[in-house]
């Protein structure tokens, strides 16, 4: 029982890491505004760029990526550590390697959920693309770099960040299925990629209508 309670607590920590409202705090600290009332009403780096400027956006982007990295690194440390505690008795059928793989999967989903549905912002937040990139880089750097490259290429050509984010999510799904990765990692990337795309549903409507904003406009 202690093992499962500790496991849930670990996922709660991953969620809280993700729920740190970086863009919201930037708006409050720099201009005393609620960024959710400006621009696209998102707390992500793109809306920070349009509302607060380049350097705040870069800082928010970096922190949001690091939130994803931190959640995965924490899961990889915390769950093996549980196996070393004499007071904790893991299920006999659950070997440490399998446990860590699934823990990474669930922690990745928890940090994405925290970013998009922050408890500190009445369960609103960003679209989880930057945090998702951090998860990918910490979980499997080839998949993360491939997704980042797809994002960069699409944004360089189209100047549309939302399009780049969605195509990066699709690229990550293709790469994780094509490369040798544990099943939990594949499920994480598929579920996380779908989540990121669903979070962009308003952007999809604007893309289809030809009204989606471009960088520099």
UniProtKB/TrEMBL annotation:
E.C. number: 2.3.1.275
GO MF annotation list: acyl-phosphate glycerol-3-phosphate acyltransferase activity
Keyword Membrane: yes
PANTHER family: GLYCEROL-3-PHOSPHATE ACYLTRANSFERASE-RELATED (PTHR30309:SF0), INNER MEMBRANE PROTEIN YGIH (PTHR30309)
Swiss-Prot/TrEMBL keywords: Acyltransferase, Cell membrane, Lipid biosynthesis, Lipid metabolism, Membrane, Phospholipid biosynthesis, Phospholipid metabolism, Transferase, Transmembrane, Transmembrane helix
Summary of subunit composition and partner proteins: Probably interacts with PlsX.
SMART domains per record: G3P_acyltransf
Matching InterPro entries: G3P_acylTferase_PlsY (IPR003811)
Sequence similarity: Belongs to the PlsY family.
Annotated protein name in UniProt: Glycerol-3-phosphate acyltransferase
Swiss-Prot/TrEMBL catalytic activity: an acyl phosphate + sn-glycerol 3-phosphate = a 1-acyl-sn-glycero-3-phosphate + phosphate
First-tier enzyme category under EC: transferase
Subcellular location: Cell membrane
Membrane topology category: Multi-pass membrane protein
Record bears the keyword Acyltransferase: yes
Function according to Swiss-Prot or TrEMBL: Catalyzes the transfer of an acyl group from acyl-phosphate (acyl-PO(4)) to glycerol-3-phosphate (G3P) to form lysophosphatidic acid (LPA). This enzyme utilizes acyl-phosphate as fatty acyl donor, but not acyl-CoA or acyl-ACP.
One GO cellular component term: plasma membrane
Pathway per the UniProt entry: Lipid metabolism; phospholipid metabolism
Organism: Bradyrhizobium brasilense
